[in-house]
C-alpha cells in the first residue's frame, strides 16, 4: 500500500518502466516524498536576523559609539554571517523530507551528510506533536517519534498543525496494527 496520489504513479519513472514487459509491470518502488512547508524557513530566517542583528549592534555600533568609529567595521562580520546563514538555511530546509510507505516511515535530511531514518510502524511506541509559542505564531508543529531504541532521531519539524495531527493519527493507527502481531 503506497501513499500518495494516484496521479503520481505514472508520471515519474516512465522511461524506466518503458523497458518492462506488458501491462503487468510492477509499480515503482520509490517512495513518495513530502517536503516541509515554507513557514519553517521563514521562522528560521527570522530568528537568524534577530539574533545576528543583536550581535551586529553589540559588535559594531556600541564599540563605534564608545571607543572609535574604526570599530564599526566589526559589524561586517555578523552581517556576513547573516548573508551566509540566509542561504544555508534554505539549503537545509530543502533537504528535509519524509515519506510514508506500507511498513515504515522514512525521514531524510542533511546537505553535506545525508541522513535517512527508517522507522518501522511496529516499533513506534509514542508519537508526539509539539508546538512552542514561536512555532504556533507561525502556524507550525513538529512530530516526534519514540521507539525502543534511544538513538532513533525521528523528528519532522515545521509541519502544518493539521498535517502533524493527521500524521500522528495515521502513525499511531499503523503502529497499533503492526505491533499487535508481535
Account of the 3D structure:
By secondary structure, the chain is an alpha+beta fold. Helix content is 43%, strand content 21%. It has five helices and seven strands, in the order αβααββββαββα. The protein has helices spanning 14-18, 38-66, 76-95, 133-137, 161-179; strands at residues 34-35, 97-100, 104-109, 115-120, 124-130, 141-147, 154-159. The protein is elongated and about 70 Å long.
Provide the descriptors you would attach to this structure in a database record:
single chain, 182 residues, alpha+beta, 4-stranded antiparallel beta sheet, 3-stranded antiparallel beta sheet, 5 helices, 43% helix, 21% strand
SSE order and pairing:
Layout: H1 14-18, E1 34-35, H2 38-66, H3 76-95, E2 97-100, E3 104-109, E4 115-120, E5 124-130, H4 133-137, E6 141-147, E7 154-159, H5 161-179
Antiparallel strand pairs: 1-2, 2-3, 3-4, 5-6, 6-7
Helix pairs in contact: 2-3
Amino acid at each position: 500500500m503506497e501513499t500518495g496520489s494516484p496521479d503520481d504513479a505514472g508520471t515519474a519513472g516512465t522511461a524506466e518502466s518503458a523497458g518492462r514487459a506488458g501491462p503487468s509491470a510492477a509499480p515503482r518502488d520509490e517512495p513518495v516524498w513530502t517536503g516541509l512547508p515554507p513557514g519553517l524557513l521563514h521562522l528560521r530566517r527570522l530568528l537568524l536576523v534577530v539574533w545576528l542583528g543583536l550581535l551586529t549592534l553589540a559588535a559594531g555600533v556600541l564599540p563605534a559609539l564608545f571607543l572609535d568609529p574604526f570599530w564599526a567595521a566589526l559589524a561586517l562580520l555578523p552581517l556576513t554571517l547573516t548573508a551566509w546563514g540566509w542561504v544555508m538555511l534554505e539549503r537545509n530546509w530543502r533537504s528535509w523530507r519524509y515519506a510514508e510507505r506500507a511498513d515504515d516511515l522514512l525521514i531524510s535530511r542533511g546537505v553535506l551528510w545525508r541522513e535517512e531514518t527508517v522507522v518501522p510502524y511496529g516499533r513506534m511506541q509514542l508519537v508526539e506533536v509539539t508546538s512552542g509559542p514561536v512555532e504556533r505564531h507561525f502556524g507550525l508543529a513538529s512530530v516526534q517519534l519514540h521507539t525502543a531504541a534511544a538513538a532513533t532521531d525521528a523528528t519532522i519539524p515545521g509541519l502544518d498543525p493539521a498535517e502533524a495531527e493527521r500524521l500522528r493519527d495515521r502513525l499511531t493507527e499503523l503502529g497499533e496494527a503492526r505491533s499487535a502481531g508481535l
